[in-house]
Input
Amino acid sequence: MRPRRSVLYMPGSKPRALEKARTLPADALILDLEDAVAPEAKEMAREQVCAAVRQGFGKREVIVRINALESAWGEADLLAVAAVGPDAILLPKIASARQVHRAEQRLSHVPQAGETQIWAMIETAGAVLDLAGIAAAGGRLGCLVLGSNDLLQELGGTHTKDRANLLFVLGQIVLTARAHGLAVIDGVHNDIADSEGFGLACTQARSFGFDGKTVIHPSQIAPCNAAFAPSLAEIAAAQAIIAAFALPENRDKGALAVAGRMVKRLHEKAARKTLAMAEAIAAL
Output
């Protein structure tokens, strides 16, 4: 189990930002070669990011977002980044499973790619319509990442505080990811100064079942980590459920009362997952 509570975007064209990322408590880093990099800086950013990945980022999970495979830089990005073996390569502007298969095929010819996963951005109408097909691509695919900014722009929509216009997508992306055994990360919250709104977005995302949230500023990391981590109360409740089912008189029972609440074996399984996540977070 790998915590992905906070997944921080860092521009690949800024060496100081890449260096600062090594000091930040984000669970994962997305070193960005796409939106955060101007066209004239694409090749320079690619070289800087590859060098940074070789150097490493400690225990943080390292993902590189390349340019779209159909762009002038995508193919070169994919091969160069694969050669330095990050934890994952994030594919933007996915519209169908065909693009995932194309990246998979390219990576099969790069020995250094090793265990590098493919992550897919869900940020187009086509991706939402083909969620099941994309999630079923298999192979290296390990995570779906919501790109709400691009998606809303394509839809002609606007950002709202309650994200009511995205509720369908939020539900579908989590449902589809879980059906195919994938991790799933929520989109960014653009207003860095809106701490209240960010907190509400994190709470909403966790209630849907997201593993974590992409963030765009260091100030968003701590509240994001707190929102997606098991609370002390949740840990205590999980320990109580596991202890109750472990009692000799309860070992053959499928359901029992714990602290005035009826719990089943499925709750014991969830409790073990909660404790495993707490241990994984502590290991960071």
